[in-house]
Amino acid sequence: MMTRFGPAWCALRLSIVMPLLVAGSLEPQAHVTIDNAQSQRGSFKARFNVTHGCDGSPTNEVRITIPEGVIGVKPMPKPGWSLATTRGQYAKSYDYFHGKQVAEGVTSVRWSGGKLLNEHVDEFVLSIYVTDAFKPGDIVHFPVEQICDAGKLLWVEKPAAGQDAHTLKAPAPGIKILPANDDRKSSH
Ligand SMILES: [Cu+2]
Question: Ligand 1 center to residue 80 CA distance, Å?
Answer without folding.
Answer: 24
